[in-house]
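Pasting as-is:
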Amino acid sequence: MGGLARTDPHRAPRGLGRLFGDLKVRPKLIVLHNTFFLILACAVYFSLLPLFEERVAGERLRENSLLIQILYDDRPLPNTPGTELYDFREGGGEELRIPAEIRQWLDANSGLIWRNAAQSDLAWRRMPSGTYRRLRMPDNFYRNLISRARRTLFIVLGAIYALAVLALEFLIMPQYVYRPIQVMLRADRATREDDRAHELIRGEEILDDEIGQIMRSRNATVEELRRHEDSLARALEDLRAKNEMLEAAKKHLEDQDRLASIGMLSASVAHEINTPLTVLHGSIEKLLETAPEKPARDRLARMLRVTQRMRRISESLVDFARVRRQEVEPVSIRAVVEEAWSLLAIDDKAAGIRFSNQTREEHRVMGNTDRLIQVFVNLLRNALNAVGPSGSILVTSRVVEEGGKNWVLTAVEDDGAGIPPDVLPGIFEAFVSTRLDAKGTGLGLTVSDGIIRQHGGSIKASNHPGGGARLEVKLLHA
């Protein structure tokens, strides 16, 4: 037992088996069913025909024996239907055209029957009356019968073979083998091309045979792969979002550290310069009131403008240092914008600006009123400084839903020159100023961004395609 070779059923075939296995399904099935039918036809032909020939030979022998018995009988020839088949005659030698040597033998052996191998189908006998009888045995009939049987069997088997091939190749195989294979190939091609609409085989195209089982298994495999693919895509998207959040948090922490340091420095600087600035500003105002000469008044006026600018810078530094969470309540965006613009309306330039507050009264946000006014004062001041003497500023609001929450988006738009592309990415960083008149400190938007972040919102800056800047504040709807 140990020396017997064991065949591995899972091993790939080799030699002729491999050549046959490499054929496509259609040629392979043609070879198989042709071989099977030829073997079956040969088995039928060579098993039935010998039995038929044996049966015919037996009938021939029995019939010949009966005919010989009739030939031995001295009674007159029977005159029954069918005897003409045997050419049963009686007469003289000349009449029956009996060869001379056969006639001599019959005359010498009266009463016996003469037959030879050359003419096995003929038999002669000399009757006691001196006449001769001739009987033609039906050997040719039986030989023709066997030939016809062979020919008929061959034709019938050939016709059955042709009909079977036609039925298999044009009816059965295309419908139940070739078509399902083509359906699977098309579905596989759709899977490779990521055509999800056609990668699964439809239920009406799946039968309950083995090919149908393969189709169902393939569909289940594709669906499982797609589920894993979608799960992986969601995981990758989640990972990408978390990475972005981490990067944003890292940048925010860096900004917070930097802003905290700058805030401490700002508070210290503002505290140190506020007192002397106040004294200086008050003194200049007193001198300006009492100065009689115009040149002196002009110089004092310029000095007053300088101290006012220094006070604005000091106030910005204090604002920057005081960005901290305050008590929040429902606040009307429209009221905040109106108050912010009223604080800016004392500027001479504001009188020539077309200002439009199109925010909705019902758009309320959760926030601290003073801090939000500070934000919109900064935004409107930037817009006011960016537009021309007869420019326009538009403020609008709308409500959107994001992340299952309602947010109020308030946009401040102007028709100025817009934000330079190289400045736009870092517009909310400290000490960034885009105003060409150099009146800005660069802290206004940074302070505003910090306040809005403390409120749980965000600010986005962009440019209009037709010109002008757009600053959009997003705050939670109250």
